[in-house]
Amino acid sequence: MKTSGIIAEYNPFHLGHKYQINKIKKELNTNIIAIMSGDFVQRGECAILDKYTRAKIAVNNGVDLVIELPFYYSLQSAENFAKGGISILNKLNIVDYLCFGFECEKKEDIIEISKFQLKYKNEIEELLNFEIKLGKSYAVAYKNACIEINKKYKVLEIQDNFFISNNILSIEYVKNLILSKSQITPFPIKRKGKNYNDEDYNSQDQLSASAIRKAIYENNFEKIKNFIDKNTFDELKNSVKNNILPNEKIILKILKYNILINQINPENIVNYENGILNLIKKNIYSVNSIEELAEKIQSKRYKKVRIKRFIYNYLLNINNEIKEIYSKDIEYITVLGFNKKGQELLKEIKNKTNLEIVTTNKSTQNLSNFQKNKFEIEQNSRKLYKLFTNNKNQTEFISFLQK
User: Fold this and answer.
1) Measured between alpha carbons, how far is 317 from 319 in angstroms, rounded to an integer?
2) Which of 162, 202, 248, 273 might form a disulfide with 289, Cβ 3.0–4.6 angstroms?
3) 278 is in an annotated binding site
4) Which helix (H) or strand (E) element contains residue 188?
5) Annotated binding residue at 19?
6) Measured between alpha carbons, how far apart are the two ends of the chain, in Å?
């Protein structure tokens, strides 16, 4: 039986994700492996539910094996987020398809634009850097550069609204497959419901994860009940009841402490841009949350999501030394959850690769000193997440088999 891979966050898992899983099973009839962000996500935030809970929900909804995407990748741009996920899927040596959502008319457009960007990479980057120097954000500069170079060569029909988050991520997936000379076949699936960034939770269409999170923080659970599965609903209600959702006030206090006392050199932090820390220092005492801080200092140059990614890289001390550690080839995988099929997939991975497979604390003993150091970095990020969320549960590794 063939195997499909998904790179996901499930933040939180909703019926749009369930639709994708059902579509894979119906059209491809494969096993499913999800490479899932851990406790921190690509928007520059703490995950609304911890990684073990989200993995369990994913397995309950049809995913056979959940492998953690290291926090270094999950807090980076679309390009590096995709690179981390693809590198793991390639290393498994058992994945046949990469399945991902897109938001345009034709799935072929994603493939063609990916090839176009690779072919004209140098010209696009030159124009992109020029636009950034004019004070435009990376996202706007990126879109403008692609559209202008495409006009020059008349390769494709690209609409102005094409470059939205889901499509950009899809393009990066395909580009990374091509660049890595992967044997994995891309399988785009048209996304249903509201746009990825849409925060309106009063819609009758499938809500985005952004809208669901907003409804939760505004205590409007009834608005989301029809758009998420019962497991997710119950876990979210439980988190609110036990006050273990990510606590923005705690996170802001820890950021203040780091700025005042630790005084970490920001220039060594991944995603640092000149002037960004001074802006944070100037405004940090007039806000009540990281979200409010990012909204206050965002500009044409500094988009909110880039500010938030920098803040979490700063809080987790993701510096150039850690970047160098993660630039090395994947040597082990951390398993968060699996079912009986997933157990068989793990055996197949073990037979077809040299990867160490971490499923318990005991299994970390097989890691090299370099790998143990990397695993310890991951565990430290877990401890910080628990501090951000008032979560009193134990921190040790708890991979599980779901019956």
Assistant:
1) 6
2) 248
3) no
4) strand 185-190
5) yes
6) 20
The response to whether 44 counts as a known ligand-binding position is no
Residue 244 labelled as part of a binding site: no
120 marked as binding residue: no
Q: Is 336 annotated as a binding residue?
A: no
The response to whether 101 counts as a known ligand-binding position is yes
Q: List helix spans (H) across 180-289.
A: 209-217, 230-241, 248-257, 276-283
Locus of tokens 């044409």? 300
pTM beyond 0.85 = yes
Q: Is 106 annotated as a binding residue?
A: no
Asked if residue 266 has a cis previous peptide bond (ω within 30° of 0), the answer is no
Which CATH topology does 3-103+189-193+330-388 take?
Answer: Rossmann fold (3.40.50)
* Residue 342, marked binder: no
pLDDT in tens, the chain (403 residues): 999 999 999 999 999 999 999 999 999 999 999 999 999 999 999 999 999 999 999 999 999 999 999 999 999 999 999 999 999 999 999 999 999 998 876 788 899 999 999 999 999 999 999 988 888 877 888 889 999 998 888 888 877 778 777 888 999 999 999 999 999 999 999 887 656 566 677 776 778 888 899 888 888 888 888 899 999 999 999 999 998 999 988 999 999 998 888 878 888 999 888 889 899 999 999 999 999 999 999 987 788 998 999 999 999 999 999 999 999 989 999 999 999 999 999 999 999 999 999 998 888 888 999 999 999 999 999 999 999 998 776 555 666 676 5
The alpha carbon torsion through 109, 69, 178, 139 (nearest 10 deg) reads: 50
**Domain boundary assignment for the chain:** 3-103+189-193+330-388, 248-322
285 is in an annotated binding site: no
14 known member of a binding site = yes
